[in-house]
Design goal:
8-stranded mixed sheet; phosphoribosylglycinamide formyltransferase activity; binds glycinamide ribonucleotide; binds the ligand Nc1nc2c(c(=O)[nH]1)N[C@@H](CN(C=O)c1ccc(C(=O)N[C@@H](CCC(=O)O)C(=O)O)cc1)CN2; GART_AS; alpha/beta; Phosphoribosylglycinamide formyltransferase; Rossmann fold
Amino acid sequence: MSDGDTLNDFTPEAAEPPRVVVLISGSGSNLQALIDAQGYDELGGGKIVAVVSNQPDAYGLKRAKEAGIEAVALPHREYDSREAFDGALIKVIERHEPHLVVLAGFMRILTPRFVQRFYGRLLNIHPSLLPAYQGLNTHARALADGVSEHGCSVHFVTEELDGGPVVLQAAVAVAEDDDEASLKEKVHAREHLIYPIAVRWFLEGRLRLEAQGPTLDATPLPPQGLRLSHQDAAEELDEDPEE
Ligand SMILES: Nc1nc2c(c(=O)[nH]1)N[C@@H](CN(C=O)c1ccc(C(=O)N[C@@H](CCC(=O)O)C(=O)O)cc1)CN2
Ligand SMILES: NCC(=O)N[C@@H]1O[C@H](COP(=O)([O-])[O-])[C@@H](O)[C@H]1O
């Protein structure tokens, strides 16, 4: 594989399944959603070949091991700089020659070198309706602002933190009695729906990051990506769509 290949040119009927490396820092519930989707053959034929965490005690590493997936702890604190850590992270990832690198609760800002290395095949899930609430503590900030709607976004990763082009979003209604924990739970449920969908689209060759922006089936996506409707989400989650 030559440097910078945007593995989108792999063909879905390729001899071997497209390889996915997932980066985590914590619980790994989004990783679990991807593992489950893979198990149901709902991940575009993709295979998660490694999970890498910058936090050695991340529960997501346990989830990976239980799923028979290579689990790698790469403590960022053992490196003198962000650049040194990212260099080591690139080496670990490249061993697996992934078609796609998925950030699933990975809590490190990536250097331009890393982003450029995997540009166009690097996805992230963010717990807000981007471009609102980039950065951290999104649920608390949304509650503090008294917004009536919150949610999550899947986007291609660029050098601009949480500024990359959005692919898919899902919204949740913020109830009067919501607190950070209840809102986080609502958003998590939507994350676990949209992330496998976006990853599947990419691995099927349907989702691409072109020079002009992301496309699905060669059609440019709107600025805030596509929106998973409340109805569709409710049906998937067996919820009352009116709530
Ligand atoms: N260059 C990019 N790197 C990353 C992106 C991105 O879009 N471009 N997305 C983030 C994911 N993320 C939110 O979705 C995010 C992760 C981490 C941070 C952050 O401030 N990290 C601090 C450490 C925080 C901690 O350890 O708790 C840091 O790296 O110094 C903000 C947003 C992944 N990377
Ligand atoms: N800015 C990055 C960020 O906050 N990502 C968020 O971390 C959580 C990870 O949960 P998980 O480990 O259970 O998948 C998810 O809610 C994800 O949106």
